[in-house]
Amino acid sequence: MASRRSASPATITHSLGTRRTPARPPSRGPLVFGSLAIVVAVVAVFALIRLLTPTATSTPAGAASADAVAAVTGVPATRLEQVGLGSATIKLKSVPGPSSLVGPSGKPEVFYYGGEYCPFCALQRWPLIVALSRFGTFSNLKPTFSAEGNVATFTFHGSSFTSQYLDFVPLERYGTQRAGTGWAQIQAPTAQQQTLIDILDAPPYSSLQGGLPFLDFGNAYVEAGAAYPAATAIGFNHQQLAALLQDPKSTQSQAILGTANVFTAGICRITHMQPTSVCSLPTVQAVAAQLAAPAPSASP
Amino acid sequence: MSGDDRTLPWGLLGAAAAGVAVSLYLTIAHFAPATLVCGTSGLFNCDLVTTSAYGVLLGSGLPTASAGLAWFGVGFVLAAVQLARPASPLPLIAHRAWSVLGIVFVLALVYIEVVILGAICIWCTVAHVLVLATLLMTLARRTPA
């Protein structure tokens, strides 16, 4: 046995007169493409779930709707004072120059530019409604959800606001229906509004030209974007957020009511600190003192 | 060692480096004060995703992007070891296991984006594609004997 030598592959090849290639390992193609197909299929299932699931969670109706509106339009001054600035920071930017913004009835105007699809507009409406409700009365304010992010909010489209101190002019430019890669327009800006947007909803006041949301307090102060993080409101419905606003220490109260106090101070600045029942409150006065005074001719 | 097996570790290294860069950008963006603004095209919304409740790792203040930073960092080391020791099967096997873990995490995040938030973060998607590419490259590379 020891004398027997096994034939080498080369010997076999030679003896058979044919060339043998080394055994090829199995192709890894099926494994790679199979894995890719599985991942793509899982993502497709997610997209399908999204498409088949109604986007908006339960929008409150009837009494629940009225409760949600009452919770945001009737926040007591004592609670707002308890919160103070909360977690809010003063993001209002002063606009230099004398051009004032006056509303349809000749009072200082607060202009809102947003869209119903927009989650950051959804966030911004909560403190804006709280603040404006200290100066006047909303009607036909309807609870809704942003099309992106499902943020519980209210739409200004179809609503009205009356006040003896200011005019509120909301422009909900886009709705919740898709139009191409964007959103269908539901309300067109006037020529004056478009000029205002072109000039003030732009750098250096905003990081994005024409971005949403945009707020203009009498052309004296502007704010672009949401004042607080989306995490504050995402995942909560109107009833839950309304309940959280009852607690001054909740994260939501700290952000929303704190921001409402900042907006209140901005409004007080353009209404000559009227009414005193609102504008003389310690928190409002403290924030107002940090805002640059509007240019003299920007006052009503 | 075939040509593919020589180039794939370099591909893995490149994907990891790109992933570190993207994750670092998202981590910095999380901590930097940024204005939250909607564009009007509405297709992608990084701010909404990164500032949502899912933008931080559960029970911590750490941004989810920091998990990506760690994952790609480890991936970079594993790819480098494969380049240094091409005949050793262990780094590739470890990288495969690491990639499977990564893709499971990615699919969970994609579920949150697509199904829960209804918004896509384009930078996050770049990182997700890099994780998928890493998985496919580790599967494509033959295990050294």
Written overview of the protein:
The complex is a heterodimer of chains A (about 300) and B (about 140). Chain A has helices at about 10-15, 30-50, 60-75, 75-85, 120-130, 190-200, 240-245, 250-270, 275-280, 280-290; strands at about 95, 110-115, 135-140, 140-145, 150-155, 160-165, 165-180, 180-185, 215, 220-225. Chain A contains ten helices and ten strands. In chain A, helix 8 packs across helix 10. In chain A, about 40% of the residues lie in helices and about 15% in strands. Chain B has about 140 residues and is mostly helical. Chain B contains five helices and no strands. Chain B has helices spanning about 5-30, 45-50, 65-85, 90-115, 120-140. The model of chain B has no long low-confidence stretch (mean pLDDT about 85).
Annotation keywords:
heterodimer; A: six-stranded mixed beta sheet; two-stranded antiparallel sheet; B: 145 residues; 5 helices; 71% helix
Please give the structural blueprint.
The complex is a heterodimer of chains A (300) and B (145).
Chain A: H1 9-16, H2 29-52, H3 62-73, H4 77-83, E1 93-94, E2 109-115, H5 119-132, E3 136-139, E4 142-145, E5 152-155, E6 160-163, E7 167-179, E8 182-185, H6 191-200, E9 214-217, E10 221-224, H7 238-244, H8 251-270, H9 276-279, H10 282-290
Parallel strand pairs in A: 2-7
Antiparallel strand pairs in A: 1-10, 2-9, 3-6, 4-5, 7-8, 9-10
Chain B: H1 3-31, H2 46-50, H3 64-84, H4 89-117, H5 122-140
